Amino acid sequence: MTERTGEELGESPVDVLAGSFYLVGTLAFVLVSLVIGTRLVRLSLRTGERPELYLGLGILGTAVFGYGIQIVSVLVRGGPDGTNVTPLAVGLTAAGKLLHDAGVALVLFFVLTVFRKDDRRARVVFGMAVLVLWTGTLGLGFTTGYRDIFERNLFWWLEYAVIWTYPLWGAYESLRYHGMMRKRQRLGLADPLVANRFLLWALGSLGTFAATWLASWPMVLPDPTVARGLETFNYLATAAVGIATVTAYSLAFLPPAWYRRWIAGREPTGTPQAA
Description:
By secondary structure, the protein is an all-alpha fold. It is built from ten helices and no strands.
């Protein structure tokens, strides 16, 4: 993603507004992810359950530390086109990418553990995804030293083949389980809030998928400067999708009392609700 402030986008009020909105969206995305990830890790430490730990660390790795450190690395370089390629900038780029991709692997492991634990084919898919991801990540480091953030060699494509698609697995499984829970809910055998949580997680995963593509599509252009004319749109769209995504995650993991009442009130008449 191109990380720059509103003033750097241009002089027009629209550009400045887009940059400010992008900054607000980025901060909201990181801070809400920090709260959710930390809460899940603490829950796992208290209960001893592992899925919460995998997901919590995955969120912290991708959305907080990995993403955040990569933003800092771009700022240290002097912007996406910056020439201040110091050892600190390179180290930050490497740390950000490694933490982010470790988070991706943990999110995939969460999906495998929760939805497809005994599915041999799913384990193969998980193993192949992680192998491709880390072959790309480490190969990129060995070939470029993480110095050039615009390098698009084979290893970069391997890494991003997974980064661009990994949220879709969680979205699919969550939607599938949401349908199953809705059927049980009509029989009074499922908590409506739990059923809704699967839907919210699916929507959040689709939002992550959309935000990732919006943030990275300029990278695939032969000349990244071609995307300069669409920067304002890209900032507005990425920020809007990011805010929608963390809203879905917040309602899934930190639902306020009014939202709980609203979901409970949608229960069909005459259907017993789970306690």
